[in-house]
Each structure stands twice: as structure tokens, then as C-alpha cells.
Amino acid sequence: MSENTFYVTTPIYYVNDIPHIGHVYTTVAADVISRYMRMSGRKVMFLTGTDEHGQKVEQAARDRGKTPQEHCDEMVVRFKDLWRRFNISNDDFIRTTEERHIKVVQHFLQKLFDSGDIFKSSYSGWYCVPDERFWTEKDLDDGHCPDCGREVVQLEESNYFFKMSKYQDWLIKHIEDNANFIRPETRRNEMLGFLRNPLEDLCISRPKSRLNWGVEIPFDTDYVTYVWFDALINYVTSPGYTTDDERFAAFWPNCTHLIGKDILTTHTIYWPTMLKGEGLAPPARVFAHGWWTIEGHKMSKSVGNVVEPNMLLDKYGADAIRYFLLREVPFGLDGDFSHSALVGRINSDLANDIGNLLQRSLGMLEKYRDGVIPPAPDDSEMGDLSMEFVKASHKAVNELDEHMAVLSFDRALKAVWEFIGAANKYIDSAAPWTLAKEGKEAKLDSVMYTLFEAIRQVAVMINPFMPETGQKMFRQLGITQKKELHTFTSLEIWGGLPGGTKTFRGPALFPRIEEVQEVDVKEDKKDEGGRMKEEPQKTANVIGIEDFAKVELVTGKVLEAEAVPKSKKLIRMIVDTGEKRQIVAGIAEYYEPDDLVGRTIAVVGNLAPAKLMGVESNGMLLAAHDDNGLALVTFDKEVGVGVRIK
Ligand code: ME8
Questions:
Q1: 283 CA distance to ligand 1 centroid (A)?
Q2: Pocket lining: 274 vs ligand 1, CB cutoff 6 Å
Q3: What percent of the chain has pLDDT over 70?
């Protein structure tokens, strides 16, 4: 086992839906710890990917009129593109439909079957179709799935089972002996509590007659593998289980799984017992973080509050979002996402604290030293103020290391921000402007050097969290090419920044964001009499033309329409907007499907797909609704399809 390696994984996300801010959270956290470890000299392997088998994905593909593979191939691009935009530095991206993974799953199954840990048995019980899980009568919550609250169906069939119960005592002991295995502590206690009840064996197959989209069971081709049993194995496929022994031996013992608290049982009960049966060690650490709500509400398609990460990126940029997610909420606790909290952090922590520190320091260096870093002073030339400040930098680095070791991202950032605060205070106390006025040149050199070495240290410390900003700071400090100054090892000794380096003053790192735009009243603020006019109204509801232009409104012709079965309100239409798309609208109480066919309507063309009663809708039609009913927006002249409405 190598001490010098670090292996981190995210859950592999389902491709039944597009990525949202929850997926971004775990992936950014994994990226931050990976970058930190790499910058500290560790050999890192960072894995993310997609979970592509199972009922949910098969259903999503069917809803879109695609084969499951076509559907997966399209959806996976959404994840990969998003990770690129967030500067995610994963070393591998695994898809469970890849041959390399299927082979390992089949190897795993065969080995467990041969050793007697998998057996066939008939099973009768309650089954939750969307969750793909069997439940016993006592598990049910008023006749519904205890996990998702939806209806369950009675099912009887022969299946294969993994002898999970056999490993219960071993697992309890493992959790008790390894305090770090399940983090944070609350989750560890939760699982120890769960294990006080007898562990049941795990149903790991699905008959092909019911579900075809999965990894075929190697010893019985009438069955496919249960999606969770298949998915968890991704974590050993990628580092080379059965294909690259050396790599696997180097990385697997130092594995941290980052997950949300929703999938704690699968990762800390199913997975370690599966590994035990296979003769493999459990992962070193499973960290289950908390849950994000959006503006105080559960994220939900039907509520329409799912935060689309691409929109956030367009508005705020990757680094501000990365910073916010990890600073706002202690890793492990639940949090609430709101635009105002995000803007608050951008303006105070980013624009004010760090942005200002860099701008004012570069401004002074330009003014007093033509933008060139003075030579490093000897300790004897530094004085108490500077010596104290250097101590503060060591404190920040040490605290950051301590907090990163336990994935306490918010505290790590807090330690850095305390140091940024100390740097801003150092400027005020050392008062370079007074030193310049009084001609104390040596002292001024010493202060300016100390300040810029501190800024370099800040740039290194924030780099894992905000890689674009870190690079911008290195550029402005004139050390882009000096990679040896970008590492955490370079912070062990004060004074890495070479004297004589030419800095470059660039644009502000984080311009302030005015959440509520004011009407521009610069010129006509006063009336003819020279008195101030009434203060303009805040215009939170007014949008600019560029915001309106983001909505793609187009004409579309209804080609087919039919009522959605079991729904009183929904009609499913095929609409030609230049391309044929399926739109589901809640208009059945006002229109007969046949009345709609042939009409030209107005459609929002670039709305993220949504599912209504399990039917995917790709777009929305425009209508006005008042006490008299609902009226579709139509056109008073013949107009073609796919014509932009402005
Ligand atoms: O569960 N807050 O995939 P998934 C915080 N394919 N994190 C959230 C979140 C929220 N509101 N919503 C989602 C699966 N997440 C399986 C995993 S692994 C072998 C198979 C994050 O697409 C969080 O990490 O439903 C959560 O565990 C994960 O997305 C669930 O992603």
C-alpha cells in the first residue's frame, strides 16, 4: 500500500435526468480535495462517471423514444460538458455500459457464485418500481415505499441473492474498529443503529422478462444484474481490479467515496459486504455529505426549482459557485441554496476581501516600485508587525491542512479568509503610503515583499477551490511559469517569491454584483430646480433585452395530440418546430386533443426537459389563463414552423 496515493470518487450519476446543483456539489468537493492532494505531492486518482443501467434509465429512454444506449450516449455529454465548465479535473470517467466495467461485474458475480455467496431463491414481496427495490410488509409506510413514498406492487419471482447477512457481524466490527470508515460521526451511528436489526440477503438479479437493460448474469442468461450491484463495482473497475494489479494495489487502499446522505446504506452496508465476499478490503472512508434545498424548498421538477448549473455558470462563473458551495455549509450538514446568499458571498468574501487585497497591493507596488517585487528582507529587517504576520500565514496553512484531512472545507476556507483579513490589516498597520512619504525605502521594500509573499500563499491556498482565480493571481504576480511556487510544499518555508519579479495588474478578480439593478439615473437625477428627484424604484422585476433573448420562442405546428392516460389535465402533443418534439401541457380541461391538431402555436423552445406523470416534455406552449378559461397563443396570419417569435 502506498502512503503517497489518494483515490477519490463521486457517485456515478443516473442518466435518467440532466445534472443539477446537487451533482455539482459532490463533484466539486471531489475536485477540490483532488487538487489539494495533487498540490501537496500525492499521486491522485479522481473518478466520476454515470450509472446507465436499470429501470429508471430504460424508462427515461422509452419516454424520449430512444433506445437506452442512444439515450445514455446523449445524456452523458451533458455531464461531461458540465464538468469541463466547472474545471473538474477527474482522471477517469466511467460509464457502466462500457465493456471494461461489464467484464468486472461479471467476474465479481461469478466469483461470488462459485464461492457459494450467491444463491437462487423464490421471492415474494412488495416492489417499488422507480426505486427498483423490494420491501417487506413491515418496511412499508402506509402501503407506500418508505424511501420515495410512491405506490408499491406485489411481486413474486425467482431471483438470485447475495448472502449479505453472512457478513453482518464482520461489518459491525469493522465499523466499530475503524472510526474513519463512515463519516461524519452521525452517519456512522446511524449505520450502527441500522445494523442492530438482522441484515437480510440482497436480491441482486432481475428477470429479463421484466427488465432487459442491465449486465447479464454470467451463470444465468435469463437475468440481468440489479442496478446497484452493478453500479457500486465501478469503483474497483476504474483503478484496475482484474486488469491492472499494480495500479489497483496502489490506489484502492486509500479510497475515499464522497456521496450524499441519500445513498449511505448502499455504500456502507451493501458495498463493503460485497467486497468482503469478493476477498477485497472495504474503502478507507465513506463520507456522506448533507442535502441542499433551494430557497428553502426541496429541489423538485414539479415545483420547478431545480437549479440548472449552466445558467448559474453563465451568470456567476465556476469559481464563485465552487467557493459558495463549499464555504456556505459545513460538509456533512444540510444547506440551503439561494441567489441572495451566493451574491452576498461574492460581494463580501470575493470582491471585497480577496479581490480588494490583490488590487490595492498591486496598485501600491506599481506606484512605489514600478510593479516589481523588491528583494526578500532578512528576518532582522522585518520588525514585529511583519514577523507576527508571517506567523499568521503559517497558522493558516497548518489549519487548512488539518481541515482538509477531515474534509472540513468550510473551516479550511475560513482559515484562509482569516489570513486574508490579516493581510488587509497588515497593509493598514504598516501603512506603505506613510513609509513612502517619509522616504523609508528599506522598510517599504520589506513590507511590500512580505505582502506579496503572503498574496502568493493565498493564491496557492485558494487554488484547489478556485482554480481559475488561483491562475489569475499567479499571472498577476508574474509567476505563471514558476510551477514550483504553486504547490503546498512551497508554503512550508516563507519567502519563495523571488525578488525582481515583474507583476501585471489585471482586471478585478470578482466584480461586485448588484443583485437589484437600479435604473440608471446618473444624468437626470435632479429636476429643473436642481432638487433631487424622487428615488427611482428598485427594478427587481425588470429584465434587460439580453435576458429576454435567452428565451427561445418559436412557432410550432401540432402534428399529433392525445390525452395522457390516467391524467385529467395533460395532453401529449408532437409539435413540429423545425424539429419534431414531444410537449406535454396541462390543457385537457379546455381543449380536445383533436381540436389541437393542425394549429400553429407559440412554444418555448429552450426549456430544460421535464417529466409530467412520467412523460417527458421538451418545451412549453404559451397560453393565457383567466376566470373564463384558457386560451392558446396563436397567430392572426399563416406563419411557418420554427419561426423565431420576438
Ligand atoms: O444515486 N443535495 O445517482 P443520482 C446534495 N446512480 N447532493 C445531492 C442532491 C442534493 N439535493 N441531489 C443529488 C445515484 N445529490 C446512483 C449512485 S453510485 C455507485 C450510484 C448528489 O444521480 C449526491 O451526491 O441520484 C447524491 O448522493 C447523488 O447526487 C445522487 O445522484
A1: 19
A2: no
A3: 94
Q: What is the homologous superfamily of the domain 338-491 according to CATH?
A: Isoleucyl-tRNA Synthetase; Domain 1 (1.10.730.10)
Helices (runs of H) and strands (runs of E) counted in the chain:
22, 23
Q: Is the CB of 54 under 6 A from ligand 1?
A: no
- 517-532 average pLDDT score: 33
130 lines ligand 1 (CB under 6 A): no
The answer on pLDDT for 628 being more than 90 is: no
Task: Rounding to the nearest 10 degrees, give the CA dihedral for residues 401, 407, 409, 413.
Answer: -10
For ligand 1, pick from 24, 262, 306 the residue to mutate: most ligand atoms within 8 Å of CB: 262
- The atom number, within ligand 1, closest to the CA of 293 reads 11
d(CA 203, CA 297): 34
The top-level CATH class assigned to 545-632 is: mainly beta
pTM for this prediction? 0.80
Count of CB atoms within 10 A of residue 604's CB?
A: 15
Task: Say what the pLDDT of residue 543 is.
Answer: 64
Q: Given this model, what pLDDT does residue 535 score?
A: 36
Q: Which residues pair with 574 in a beta bridge?
A: 560, 582
* CATH code that applies to domain 5-289: 3.40.50.620
187 vs 304: which has the higher pLDDT = 187
| Residue minimizing CA distance to atom 9 of ligand 1 | 22
Cβ(417) – ligand 1 distance below 6 Å: no
d(CA 69, CA 224): 16
| In the chain, where the domains are located | 5-289, 338-491, 545-632
pLDDT of 134 reads: 80
Percent of the chain with pLDDT over 90: 74
Beta carbon of 372 within 6 Å of any ligand 1 atom: no
Report d(CA 616, CA 374) in Å as an integer: 63
Instruction: Report whether pLDDT(521) > 80.
Output: no
* Distance of CA 260 from the midpoint of ligand 1 (Å): 6
